[in-house]
Structure formats: C-alpha cells, structure tokens
C-alpha cells in the first residue's frame, strides 16, 4: 500500500507503520491461493491438451487482481474502513475498479473450459439448462444490474450502517462488489463461452449506462450538504477532520476513479467501433440495446431521486457523538486508580484478566495498554455509567458498539476522557483499538459484559 495513503488512516502515522496495518486472514488467504493455483493448473492442462492459452500478460493480470483483493481486504484499507469513510471508499475502488477488471483480463472462464477433457466438454454442451443459464448470466442487462445494484444498495445509509455493524454482512457487501464488478468486466472483455462479443453499440451503451448510474451515486455523496453516515460522524472528529469533508473525499475517490476508468474504456470502444468493417459487423450482430437503453434511463431517473431524498432525512441518520470531558492525570497515577478500582469491585476473572462490576451509576475505569484494554467491565443493562478511560504507553483509540450505540474515544497517556455510557441490550461487546498503536494493534481488545 503506498505510504502517502497512510495519513488518511490516522493522524501522526509514519510511513514505516505501513507494515503494522496488515493482517493475515487465514480463510481469505487460503481462498486466494487456491484460486491462483487452480488457474495455473487449468492453464497447464489446456497447454497439455494443445489448446489456445491466454497470453502471459493475462496471467500476470489475473494474479495481480488476486493481489489487489488481498491489499483491499487484508491491508490498510481494511483497518481504516470503520474509522474513515474515505478509506472505505478506497477499499471499494480497489475491489471494483482494480481487482475485478484485472481478474477478467486473465480470462479465467476461457482458461477453465479449455482445460477440461473432451468428454466433460461434450457433457457441458449437452446441458441445455446450463447453457441457457450462462446466456442469462452473460447478458449485458445482467451485467449492468450486477455492478450497479450493489453499488446503489450498499451506499444507502441504513444498509451501509448495518454492514459496518455486522461482520458477516460486511463480507457479503465486499463479495457483491467484487462479484458484480467481475461479471460486468467479464461480459465486456471476455464473454466466453458466448459465441461472439458484444456489438459495438451494446458495449458502448453498457459502459455509458454503468458510468452514469454510478456517477450519480458518487455525485450525491460528494455534493451532499450534510453527512449521511452517522458512524463516521462519530469517528472522523477524532482525527481532526470534519465528517462532511471526509465524506466528500470518499465520494471524490469513487467519482474520479470510476469516471476516469469508464471514460478510458468508452474512448477505446469508440476508436474500435470506427475501424473499417465494424459497421457491417454491427449490422449483423444481435442488438439488445433496445432493452439496455430504457434500463439505463430508468436508473438515471431513479438513483438521484432516492439519494436526493436523503437530504431530507439526513439529520435523523447523522447523530452527534457523545460529549467527552477531558482531564489531565499522570499515567502512573491513573494506573494506581485503576488497580484500586479493580481491587474494590472485582467479581471474576476471564482469560487471565479481571472482570470488574462497578456500582450502578458509578465510575467505570479503563486503561489502554499494548496487550489490551484493562480490566474487563461488567455493566447492568439500561444503567448509565461514567466511563473514565486513558492510555498507559501510547495513543489508543477505543471503539465499542454497545448493541447499536457506538462509542469512540481517542486517548493519550496523561489525558483522561470521561464520557457517559449506557447499554440497552444484554450481551458481550468487544472493545477494539482504532489506532495504529503497534505491531499487535489488531489483538489489542477488551470486553464489556452487559447483564440484565
């Protein structure tokens, strides 16, 4: 990940901290390595069968696409996506406009089919339902809906907030972005096993309609008069940036990135369509453009109406962060207060850390350390507490979602933050660190246990 992007993640981050912003996701790593191995094995099998192979640059493009997925989902963008809207949009841009077209340029479908033995090919060709399904999947209207639908859906604030709050839903969001974009670029660049490519007119309309539909979403987010996403309203201020400015930066990243790429692709298609003989071929080609055009027009009409309506309800969606009072106290003095608090209200122990139940309505002390948040807190549902939190060794960012009520506080050694908290739902809520505080920042966790 380029070092200049790191300041977008956090304040006072050095380029060397880039190494700290990576994490290993074992299931995703195994999946990406398996896809790479399968692609290379399929290419080898096709070569042994004497069939045409994708060029070497296409192999490099495909492997580069897998690396782009790894950067987006295991690199700095994945660390900052819950803290900064602009970082999240950079992550989506990597998936949709970098990884997806590179994967499509690698011709994975063509390579896979050509690696199959003749009996398997004859069996697949005889499956009429499968062939019909592939024709529907490879249709330009399907490609348009696959890339535009998730883009519109997941930027609608209620769904966006839900994806930030629920990890499984967040993974589904990323999968739909990558899968829909891959289908779009596959249909446009390598519609195998279709018998022919899209006609020039159909390809031009597909790219133009997708460009305009996604641009309207980007423009609405970028030019909005107020923040749409309340999670970033609460977190952006921690890094000294106005939430609206962060939203506009994120919208501009998508707007410029998508618009630039679609403009280049559209220009290439126009140049190709002007070549001699293209007009005659276009006249003979099938033209689903009559269906594409109404869909594109409908998208252009519906998308802005939906997003412009958010200007009316944005005040409901954007909530001011909790009021934090600041005090100054020596780190050693605060540590002694925490130890006295633990000794007075300790009720149990979990994984070697004490569980402390402060009195109802009283103070709950918490200190951020490199090894985790100390101690674990046990609170009563519906009771308001005064959370007193500081850091011992370096800057830390406390983040906890108490059943839909988010709390985000950035703490420094020598500074004590005092904020009122209340959990309305019973359960166990992990405390995370949103600061690049060290090589093990992802394992710096804590816990709030809310009981009836």
Report on this structure.
By secondary structure, this protein is an alpha+beta fold. The protein has two domains: 3-317, no CATH class; 325-451, Immunoglobulin-like, CATH 2.60.40.420. Helices cover 56% and strands 15% of the residues. Strands 2-3-6-12-11-8-9 form a seven-stranded mixed sheet. A hairpin with a 4-residue loop joins strand 8 (396-401) and strand 9 (406-411). The chain is elongated, with a radius of gyration of 26 Å. It starts with 5 loop residues before the first helix and ends with a strand. Residues 1-19, 278-287 and 303-322 have low confidence and may be disordered.
Condensed summary:
With 452 residues, this protein is an alpha+beta fold.
Looking at this protein, list some descriptive labels.
2 domains; Immunoglobulin-like; 452 residues; 7-stranded mixed beta sheet; alpha+beta
Largest sheet, order of strands side by side? 2-3-6-12-11-8-9
> What percentage of the residues does DSSP assign to strands (E)?
15-25%
Shape label: elongated
Low-confidence stretches: 1-19, 278-287, 303-322
Taking the alpha carbons of the first and last residues, their distance comes to 45 Å
Please, how many domains? 2
Mean pLDDT: 76
What is the rounded Rg?
26 Å
Q: SSE order in H/E notation?
A: HHHHHHHHHHHHHHHHHEHEEEEEEEEEEE
Question: What structural class results from the helix and strand content?
Answer: alpha+beta
Q: Please give the count of helices.
A: 18
Helix content: 55-70%
Number of strands: 12
Largest sheet: 7 strands, mixed
């Amino acid at each position: 990940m380029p070092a200049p992007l790191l300041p977008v993640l956090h304040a006072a981050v050095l380029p060397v901290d880039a190494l700290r912003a990576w994490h290993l996701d074992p299931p995703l790593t195994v999946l990406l390595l398996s896809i790479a191995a399968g692609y290379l094995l399929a290419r080898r099998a096709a070569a042994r069968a004497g069939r045409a192979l994708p060029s070497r640059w296409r192999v490099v493009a495909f492997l580069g696409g897998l690396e782009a997925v790894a950067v987006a989902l295991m690199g700095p963008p994945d660390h900052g996506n819950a803290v900064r809207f602009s970082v999240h949009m950079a992550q989506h841009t990597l998936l949709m406009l970098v990884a997806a077209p590179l994967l499509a340029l690698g011709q994975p479908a063509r390579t896979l089919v050509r690696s199959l033995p003749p009996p398997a090919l004859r069996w697949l060709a005889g499956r009429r339902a499968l062939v019909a399904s592939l024709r529907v999947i490879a249709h330009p209207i399907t490609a348009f809906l696959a890339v535009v639908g998730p883009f519109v859906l997941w930027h609608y604030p209620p769904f966006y907030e839900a994806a930030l709050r629920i990890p499984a839903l967040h993974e589904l969001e990323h999968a739909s972005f990558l899968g829909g974009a891959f289908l779009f670029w596959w249909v446009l660049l390598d519609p195998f096993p279709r018998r022919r490519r899209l006609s020039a007119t159909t390809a031009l309309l597909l790219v133009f309609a997708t460009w305009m539909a996604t641009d309207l979403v980007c423009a609405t987010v970028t030019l909005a008069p107020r923040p749409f996403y309340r999670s970033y309203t609460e977190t952006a201020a921690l890094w000294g940036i106005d939430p609206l400015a962060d939203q506009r930066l994120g919208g501009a990243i998508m707007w410029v990135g998508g618009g630039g790429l679609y403009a280049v692709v559209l220009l290439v298609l126009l140049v190709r369509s002007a070549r001699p003989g293209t007009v005659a071929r276009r006249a003979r080609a099938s033209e689903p453009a009559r269906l594409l055009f109404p869909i594109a027009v409908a998208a252009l009409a519906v998308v802005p109406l939906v997003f412009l309506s958010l200007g009316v309800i944005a005040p409901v969606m954007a909530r001011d962060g909790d009021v934090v009072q600041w005090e100054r106290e020596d780190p050693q003095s605060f540590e002694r207060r925490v130890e006295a608090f633990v000794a007075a209200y300790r009720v149990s122990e979990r994984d070697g850390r004490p569980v402390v139940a402060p009195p109802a309505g009283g103070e709950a002390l918490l200190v951020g350390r490199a090894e985790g948040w100390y101690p674990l807190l046990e609170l009563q549902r519906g009771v308001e507490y005064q959370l007193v939190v500081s850091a011992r060794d370096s800057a830390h960012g406390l983040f906890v979602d108490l059943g839909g009520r988010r709390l985000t506080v950035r703490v420094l050694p020598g500074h004590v933050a005092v904020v009122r908290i209340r959990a309305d739902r019973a359960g166990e809520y992990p405390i995370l660190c949103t600061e690049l505080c060290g090589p093990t920042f992802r394992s710096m966790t804590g816990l709030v246990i809310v009981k009836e």
